[in-house]
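hey
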């Protein structure tokens, strides 16, 4: 008997300069202890998913990003959980402000040669290199628990 599946729309923003990427150490909640992009839920009443992404970026590290480029869509599924996380991934290299710590996140710049994959979600090592080379991508990751990927699919796409 298959379970009905529902989807939760989430955002993920990566701030990229020529040779470095801004990541945030998640201080609490889901993903605590991982270096993540910035993002989270899209609120009811927010015009677009991109608006939600901009709001989360500002809340989590104090940066204002006037425009975000959509670069990816990642579906995360967890064994036994019918709710699929549909994560819309954005990047930008233009922002205002200085990265600041929040209750959620401790921001830090990482050289693109030294991305801390051992302290990131296990899926990142698959799609982050596509982000770093400027590709757009679509992927699906099936997790058992939060640390084991049972299966995944990932493809580069022309554009969104
Ligand atoms: C639940 S799987 C997941 N992978 C992720 N990669 C980067 N940032 C996140 N918030 C992520 N969540």
């Amino acid at each position: 008997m298959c379970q009905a599946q529902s989807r939760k729309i989430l955002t993920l923003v990566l701030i990229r300069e020529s040779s470095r990427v801004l990541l945030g150490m998640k201080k609490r909640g889901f993903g605590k202890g991982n270096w993540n992009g910035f993002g989270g839920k899209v609120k009811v009443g927010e015009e677009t998913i991109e608006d939600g992404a901009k709001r989360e970026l500002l809340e989590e590290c104090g940066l204002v990003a006037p425009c975000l480029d959509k670069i990816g869509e990642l579906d995360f599924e967890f064994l036994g959980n019918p709710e699929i996380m549909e994560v819309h991934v954005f990047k930008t290299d233009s922002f205002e402000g200085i990265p600041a710590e929040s209750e959620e996140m401790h921001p830090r710049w990482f050289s693109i040669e030294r991305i801390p994959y051992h302290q990131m979600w296990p899926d990142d090592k698959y799609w982050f290199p596509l982000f770093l080379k400027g590709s757009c991508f679509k992927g699906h990751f099936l997790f058992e628990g939060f640390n084991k990927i049972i299966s995944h699919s990932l493809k580069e796409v022309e554009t969104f």
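Residues 12, 31, 36-37, 76, 85, 121, 123-124 surround 8-methylsulfanyl-7~{H}-purin-6-amine (CB under 6 Å). The mean pLDDT is 97.
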